[in-house]
Design goal:
495 residues; alpha/beta; Aldehyde Dehydrogenase, Chain A, domain 1; Aldehyde Dehydrogenase, Chain A, domain 2; seven-stranded mixed sheet; six-stranded mixed sheet; 15 helices; 22 strands; binds nicotinamide-adenine-dinucleotide
Length: 495
Amino acid sequence: MAELDRLAMYIDGERVAPSSGEYFESFNPFTGKPWALVPRGGAEDVARAVDAAKRAFDEGDWPQLNPTQRGHLLRRLGDLVAREAERLAEIEVRDNGKLIAEMGLQLRYAPQWYHYFGGLADKIEGAVLPIDKPETFTYTLHEPLGVCGMIIPWNSPLLLLAWKLAPALAAGNTVVVKPSEFTSASTLAFADLVAEAGFPRGVFNVVTGYGIEAGEPLVAHEDVARIAFTGGSLSGTRVYEKAAAGLKKVSLELGGKSPNIVFADANMENAVKGAISGIFAATGQTCIAGSRLLVQESIHNEFVDRLVDFARTAKMGDPMSPDTQVGPVTTQPQFEKILSYLDVAREDGAECVLGGARAARPECGAGWFVEPTIYTGVDNRMRIAQEEVFGPVLSVIPFKDDDEAISIANDIVYGLAAGVWTTDIRRALEIPKRIKAGTVWVNTYRAVSYVAPFGGYKRSGLGRESGQQAIRDWMQTKTVWISTATETPNPFIMR
Ligand code: NAD
């Protein structure tokens, strides 16, 4: 067997082994075989990384840089990600099983977050306040928070990191990242680009390892001021509880079970493509998956037939091949979880009209593949409609009219995203207002941008990433009062 790549963590500008001396295997989901050894970091490594980040925040070059200079570094980092997009994409495909076609695009787009927030770094202005007191000059300063911890899931490691890292560094913070134990390789490779861009040592650190062993110590560390977490709702709740003990600022981007609603007046061809991209793109492993497809009764049967015909043509296989359309599931536990949900759907009484099993096609080899799966006859109260599967499994739910569509769409604990397919301008404008979700797409799906705030309603999370105001979540406001009075008035009463 080929020797496995031994990866190293990145702390204080250096490649380091874990203090435990232990490593675990990272798997290629297409072959089902290990290809790398990931350092099993723990509390000691987290403490080293946080110390380095704290030193870099308090001393040395980083706090001396002005916002314009930080912006230059971020723009250089964006350029380097663009330069290395192909190499980073290949690492991600091997480690994560994401399609090379999707990764190539994602990594050509990810630099935009560094460019955009680099540009914003010197546009955060304090204010001189029109204060209502004589002989007083009062103004505000927006300052960084300090050391920020970032915990990233496995489904889009470098993109989800960019959403947090770009505004955090633009604001002047320093950072410790804990990538997913399943997909640490790309973040470790990315660390070299941060160094090459010229960020001082200690500003960016990566500790790898498991959620409980490395993630929790990062959340609990007293010198970490803010935690940005993307991942499952259960882990997110635990992170929130731990962070509360230290009164840390927290943002959470959690799960979803998004409704993708097709009205009878929709352009059917576009809506079929929208339904496909909502659930089979990225093998359904996206927080924004449109996993509940709500179809108006009058077009239900025709729509499902067209959808099944289209989904049947999806080309599965090697994610490294540019024409593959559905790749493997990223992790073995996730693969098993998806298969267990196929049993849940059966027990719920849903009717399987496509897939419903592990993919045993020759082009899928020994990889963790699940057939694109569509269930009809789904009632929104069924488990298959209420729980996040995080795989290529679609539940189709019929509805009569606008009110019923809205009621089904909102009858869920999540509120991350939704899709609406209609050619009626009234619906296009009115339906998004009634949906309880952080993002609503009309006649499109899965569009994201550095310009557009992203985050969840209800149990899909707290806070927003991207967009102008995101940088303010990585800062705190200080108010400075200066008295210009020659004499201090009566000290026993409030000024
Ligand atoms: P996960 O919650 O298992 O893990 C996410 C990260 O948290 C990993 O790095 C993990 O090691 C760490 N972690 C786990 N438990 C922890 C703990 N107690 N303390 C600290 N860190 C801990 O999620 P996952 O399986 O990697 O990712 C899939 C989930 O992420 C899905 O539920 C999906 O919806 C969600 N997700 C959300 C978004 C979004 O923006 N809303 C984006 C992508 C994925």
